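Batch 3, record 17
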Amino acid sequence: MTVLLINAWVATVDDSLSQHNPGWVQIDGTTITALGSGAPPMIENAEIIDCGGDIVMPGMVNTHCHMGMSVFRGLAEDVDDRLYRYILPLERAFVTPEMVRIGSALSALEMIEAGVTTVADMYYFETEVGHVVAQAGLRAIVGQTLADFNPPDHASFVEGFARVEELVALFAGHPLVTASIAPHAPYSTGRAVMEQVAQWSDAHPANPVQMHLAESQLEVDWARKTHAQSTVAVTRDAGLLKPNLICAHCLQLEDADIAMMSEHQVCVATNPRSNGKAGRGIAPVEKLRNAGLPVGIGSDGAMSGNTLDLFSQLAPVSMFAKLLGGSRKPLPAVDVVRMATIEGARVLNLNLKTGSLEPGKQADMIRISLASPRLHPIYDPYSMLVFAAGPSDVTDVMVAGRWLKRAGVVQTLDPHQVLRDAMQIAEKFKAEMVRIDGATP
Amino acid sequence: MTVLLINAWVATVDDSLSQHNPGWVQIDGTTITALGSGAPPMIENAEIIDCGGDIVMPGMVNTHCHMGMSVFRGLAEDVDDRLYRYILPLERAFVTPEMVRIGSALSALEMIEAGVTTVADMYYFETEVGHVVAQAGLRAIVGQTLADFNPPDHASFVEGFARVEELVALFAGHPLVTASIAPHAPYSTGRAVMEQVAQWSDAHPANPVQMHLAESQLEVDWARKTHAQSTVAVTRDAGLLKPNLICAHCLQLEDADIAMMSEHQVCVATNPRSNGKAGRGIAPVEKLRNAGLPVGIGSDGAMSGNTLDLFSQLAPVSMFAKLLGGSRKPLPAVDVVRMATIEGARVLNLNLKTGSLEPGKQADMIRISLASPRLHPIYDPYSMLVFAAGPSDVTDVMVAGRWLKRAGVVQTLDPHQVLRDAMQIAEKFKAEMVRIDGATP
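Prediction for the assembled complex:
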């Protein structure tokens, strides 16, 4: 069956930033087979969809997320010691396969609503996340986290690696879901285990590695104190700096660290709202990109960044780069759109499949309504997307030729059930928060 | 006629931050007459509106805007010399009463859609802005700009003052629209004319003064070079630092400037997205508030900040303060909501009329749908409003008891006509941009 989108403003985000307006896109099965300007081809029995001048563009790629955590969204906002006071106790008490399933479903629903078609996730009980994204129809990297702080799903690294193996076996050959190994961070994994992860990774080249890197002063201090070098250097010496490493955050970097990362061709996921809200600083995105590193955009978990769409992140990515550079010029809007699509796909090593609209690529695309007055006039569609559009402007979402959202309605999840489950579990957390606050002098 | 909103999550933003959930609000004519929790009063012939658990809160107060400029939205994005290369030539060639009317209508439409109920504007041909906001039903301060750079509507300050007088006469006694005088900035007005404005203001205590202050390095350098003091000190010596002065931007401030502003009890409008996009720095909002100054939030014009709703500004206001402070603690979400409502009203000297839901105040309120998955769970409604909600979540908007938006539909403007006019005028600008770029070597 052929689907033909016509009368669209097609923003391909290909290498030459081709736009077709009015344009058309032909989809056969899971794949984009043709696209162009002017008169669309005549194809018998094709389903023809008139886009009424709306933008059709690649689906967005969220390069760093903790989907299970959406049930903690906005909890303990503005509190500096929230990690130790609330998050870790709550995670130990409440993170179960069921909680991860419920949180991941809420996250999948939100991302589909907002035009995210690919997500890289790392959390606990990650097989549950894999089941949810597979059902929801999202393209995903699902990473089992490994950490030494007695996390909810493994009491030892041996148990953690066993969970990784289970995840890999479960999604081997899956068309949309790729298993990943996710050492939490250098300080919470330790150099010996990072070496083990590097060896595991050499034996599993198709499974990306995800890790928080250079996120906090605490981590920088740990590396200096324990290894007398930077946290990036520790990671390099463990053998983990490789093209299939997705480094999240990357705030606390010296120029020498960026050079190391560039030499080893790692990939970066920047999380502007999460970092900005924590007051932790601004990632040197321009420097990283100028050093040749692909930088994608991530939402982080909803307890840190609140929303999982990428629209919320686009203006912050741009503003932060301009504030660092002291000028309007750094990171123009078109580069921000690239980061949210094709460059994010490159970060996840999925750029041959997704991230731009080109014949032969998977049909991962979104339609954006231009009905809202806040979107007009449009002198530059990239400026409009970065600084004016929002998640509510996304009307249709397709992944691999399958509609996940159609004419404003999510097709693969039951929104009422998902919301009901999330709100029910939140009541338990509220009670626990009251208990913690009561117990705290 | 009485209107009774029932089954609402009423966030009053009054001094004690009272919430009523489920709660009700009674409106008689233009005024809130009662509100509370539990069973609503029985009132014969009242129109009863069941809010289905949605948030009902004060309408937002946009404390700095150039409504006419929305037809320039996103034009010449990411270009450092845009002011002299594009904006000033375009303004000289195209800013006419018609253009201001069309741009202001687009802005009014966008703000009503997004839950802004009060706006402080400054631009040219400001009587046109006044007519538009009056028709749209917005509460507004409309400021006639005075400047020395040959602006589109006055060749001399004498002509400029004449325009101010015309504006004041036109809106004398208007229930919603207040005329204002708006010296553009210290460097573009000059000390002698600032003194004239101060004298005019003494004679017109009900008409606020709006001015860009300490916005750029250029301005700081001008003050040092011309007057050997800070731009704030120049403004003070001209007699302009007074409680009815609304200072927009306030980026380049020394501690001594903040002390001066505090001593003279001026008001501040911070414009985070506009400032962030220009790479100009972060306003010291915490310091200003700690010095006792009320700080409201502004969108600036759509050529600088792109959108005119306040939701887009809330997370940036918070993130910028946390980045400046290096911690999660500065400017908690509840303070950001205050700034967007009651504190903004105080900046405009309208806090006895609007900015919170309290008996006796004008019925300026908005309803926010909680249907979107990105808004759940809700542990703290202020966190939800600042970090997750967006302009599209606003379903109903009331100003002084009149519905400007009802069940998702704007009542006082014709959206199709407004958009058509704006897109038509944009075509002229596009042609002029091509001409400018062609003429530039």
